[in-house]
Amino acid sequence: MVYFCSGTDSERLEWFRTINIAGENLTDQELRNAVYAGPWTADAKRYFSKTGCAAYGLAGDYLRGVAIRQEYLETAIEWHMEAEGVKSIEEYMGRHQHDPSEVALWNHFRSVIDWTKATFPKYRKEMKGVAWGPLFNEFGAGGKGGKKALDPKKLEKQVADLMEDEDVTSKPGIYSYVLDGDESHLNIRAFSPNMKREAYERQKGKCPKCPKKDQRKLDLGEMEGDHIKPWHEGGKTDAKNCQMLCKDCNRRKAGK
Is the whole-model pTM more than 0.85? Predict the structure, then answer.
């Protein structure tokens, strides 16, 4: 039995998702390939969608997923659509569906990987799956942060030190952190309940940052653990460096 599906791109994509309920589920990108079939998609699959394809040879150590399930292609589009100012993969594929080739996508993907290898020459397994495309778009030559020259040797020293820091629980996040300085990438180890209880009892339940006239005994649940000496200044996540602050003071200190 053959069905002819008509309608807008979004309507056809939703229809494909519906009939895909039975049997082996297709990935989102496999469904998109069906809706946006054309010369561009056919050409893109040569580079990104086959076992041993060009993308695997160039960047297999940096990408998560499986090429034949279209996950490499999905990643490459996500990286390039940001550079083009497009908000969704569907919009990107609709824009390029009838292009004779996908050379712009491949060139951008290759630029991302070349920049990554030049910026971080020492490969570590933690580099696999990092969002290299957005980092390139921001800190590569054409990005807003690309005006500042990057020193691979200096970056490697920072990366190596952070890899050894037991307070850093998200090692892949190190690569984003050394470029933009946002500590949230690192998922800094939190104080344990015992550490927080010890600090709470030591402070007699009072927040040391509140003005003296406003200090009152708080319940433990009204307070949050905080580094006395900030982590980025060398402070460790241990009992001696733990203080309990009221939620308002902790947010003001963190600039939230």
Answer: no
